[in-house]
Amino acid sequence: MELRHLRYFVAVADELNFRRAAEKLFMEQPPLSRQIRQLEEEVGLPLFERNRRRVTLTLAGQAFLKEARATLSQAEKSIQAARAAGQWKEKKIGVSSCACLCKYSYAFDVAFAQAMRTLRDRDADLRVMLMETPYSDQERMVAEGKADVAFLPAPPVNTSLISHELLREAFVLALPQEHLAAKQPVITLEMLGQENLFLFPEQVFPSLHADILTACGRAGFQPRSVQAKESLAQVMWLVGAGLGVGLVGASCAEAQSPGIVLRPIQNFTPRLELSMAWKDGQDNPILAEFLRLMRGMF
Predict the structure, then answer these.
(1) Which of 106, 132, 186, 239 could cross-link with 99 by S-S, CB 3.0 to 4.6 Å?
(2) pLDDT score for 89
(3) 99 pLDDT band (50/70/90 cuts)?
């Protein structure tokens, strides 16, 4: 018995008509009928009741259909696994992230770059495809196999994905060195009432963006203006130029940007969170090593 016999049988069972099944299979009806008879001879039981008016499944045929579908499904999974293994041999990994949020954490930038260097040092042929994807699309990209791993500002909702929290980092305020508030060891929110505030775009993670503005509102003010910036580098440049203040991850203190001071914010509860998510059941050794390196760094 071959897989083609199962495909022929399922086609006839679906159509309950040999002519239509043959058309569906792009073959002539007589050869299809012969293949089904050969299958029945091998099984040792009739799988179809045939008369001039209709074709129906026998009880044996109904039982055989269930298992035939399962066998074909498993065969397709085997093909997909083989193709996936072939892709891993091509030494590829696809990384999806809402990159502007990642860039607000210096700790993440350093760890990601180090993981990439480690992998490339071990295998110069490794190809990494970086995809800057809107937050709303990232889980779908990984679930559909269009990306191997995603970096999300919250654990994934999709239950087919596994996640690991990499960091939960307090926000600090970046101020120009000459700012009057820069002399204070701790900043209060009320000090920001007349400031231009640089922040990550709202569409990256709407709830965190809203939490920050809500915290300002509870302190009795709203910033004079809130400007979305795509990266930490943009924020630091604008802050250093004296054009406003910015909210960044506390690990940015390690970056030592000249002309800028970072100060903790009193009673400010929003946190910069970042999780790594990937699809369950993957057999990609490159991905496994990348995940191991990233988990180890945090």
Answers:
(1) 132
(2) 47
(3) low
pLDDT digits (tens, 9 = 90+) for 170-180: 889 999 999 98
- Cβ burial, residue 149 (10 Å; 0-12/13-18/19+): buried
Q: What does the H/E/C string look like for 160-207? A: CEEEEEEEEEEEEEEEECCCHHHHCCCECHHHHCCCEEEECCHHHCHH
SS3 80: helix
- Around Cβ 247, how many Cβ atoms within 10 Å? 21
Query: 93 — phi, psi (to 5°)?
Result: -145, 135
For residue 296, pLDDT over 80 is answered with yes
Banded pLDDT at 37 (limits 50, 70, 90): very high
- How confident is the prediction for the chain on average, in pLDDT? 84
Question: Residues with Cβ < 8 Å from 44, sequence gap 6 or more?
Answer: none
Checking DSSP bridges between strand 161-176 and strand 260-264, what pairing results, if any?
antiparallel
Q: Tell me how far CA of residue 42 lies from CA of 35, 45, 67, 71, 232, in angstroms.
A: 11, 8, 15, 17, 69
Of 154, 170, 171, residue with least CA distance to 275: 154
C-alpha to C-alpha distance for 252 and 273, rounded to whole angstroms = 14
Taking the whole predicted model, whether its pTM rises above 0.90 is answered as: no
Give the bridge partners for 171, in sequence order. Answer: 249
H/E stretch holding 20:
helix 18-24
CB distance 165 to 253 below 8 Å:
no
The pLDDT value recorded for residue 165 is: 92
Q: How confident is the model at residue 249 (pLDDT cuts 50, 70, 90)?
A: confident
In this structure, are residues 39 and 5 in contact, taking their beta carbons and an 8 Å threshold? yes
